[in-house]
Amino acid sequence: MDRGQLADFLRTRREALQPEDVGLPRGPRRRTGGLRREEVAALCGMSADYYSRIEQQRGSRPSEPMLAAIARGLHLSLDERDHLFRLAGHPPPARDPRLEHVDAGLMRVLDRLQDTPAQVVTSLGETLLQTPPAVALLGDETAYAGPDRSMFHRWFTRPDTRRLYPREDHDMHSRAFTADLRSLAARQGPAGRAATLARGLLDVSPEFARLWSEHEITARRGHRKRIRTAEMGVLEVDCQMLYDLEQDQALLIFTATPGSDSYDKLQLLSVIGAQKLPSTP
Fold first, then answer.
1. Where are the domains of the chain?
2. Could you read off the pLDDT of 15-40 as tens digits, one per residue?
3. Which of 28, 92, 208, 246 could form a disulfide with 85 if both were Cys (CB 3.0 to 4.6 A apart)?
4. Is the dihedral of CA 156, 198, 98, 106 positive or negative?
């Protein structure tokens, strides 16, 4: 661990970021550029004291999960993230489809969408980051572990996942998820994560096994999706994807037609964030 270089690297990356780069207000009292240590700590999900000790060349060596959180909070590129790990005395994470590092450019776009339901997802349907309105609309999809991190897996194994969608849309979603997983498994090969997930679903889900046996590659779907909420009923939203092909990730953005009832409800979501509204009769 090179404490001096690590501290200097973190300081320069922190000072290079502006509040607006990470979705924070600049405020009238800010006299210098860059972020404050406490702001970076909040972005990384750690205490200000812990982060400050690293910049001050004090404390123990950061763990790999802590370094990953710092890389994400500081919006580091992949090369910068690898450099951070080396300075802390850890080997850089492998760059493969399991990669969960979100590209700095994608992070900047997400930071500017804090009033819009949006989230970063992997090709396997794993949600890495969500805006507060996305949590209010869909729930916290980052809280799952193991195979349940994949929406493909949850759809066929957790009945509560389907409550977000009207029953008459379930078959469409089942076919779309199966077709997407088959296409991904073909690209990754039999040793890939998609094929492993498919084999697990074949053992536990008769519905998935039936659809898988049909070898459907393109399922009928559109950009419009209906999502059911307990507080506001069914919303019709358009789903747009911004792909990062190098990372095998995408930014999923939910919008609604201006002037529609669903548009007004999404606007309300932007105000309440992840807070729950009182149930209506």
1. 3-87, 104-272
2. 888 877 776 777 667 666 688 888 88
3. 92
4. negative
> Per DSSP, what are the bridge partners of residue 227?
235
SS3 128: strand
Distances (CA, A) of 163 to 93, 108, 205, 274: 37, 32, 18, 18
Residue 99: which pLDDT band, with cuts at 50, 70 and 90?
Answer: low
Q: How far is residue 217's CA from residue 185's CA, in Å, rounded to a whole number?
A: 11
Residue 51 tokens, joined: 């982060």
d(CA 64, CA 69): 9
- Chain centroid offset of residue 33 CA: 28
Name, of 29-43, 62-76, 200-214, the range with top average pLDDT: 200-214
According to CATH, the topology of domain 3-87 is 434 Repressor (Amino-terminal Domain) (1.10.260)
User: At residue 133, does pLDDT exceed 50?
Assistant: yes
- Using alpha carbons, select from 4, 115, 1, 149 the residue that is nearest to residue 63: 1
* 139-149 residue pLDDT tens: 999 889 889 99
Contact 114, 93 (CB under 8 A): no
Q: Do residues 104 and 76 make contact, with C-beta atoms less than 8 angstroms apart? A: yes
Cα–Cα distance for residue pair 253/75, rounded to 1 Å = 20
The CATH number given to 104-272 is 3.30.450.180
86 phi, psi to nearest 5 deg: -65, -40
For the purposes of burial, counting CB atoms within 10 Å of the CB of 209, is it exposed (0-12), middle (13-18) or buried (19 or more)? middle
The SS3 assignment for 117 reads: coil
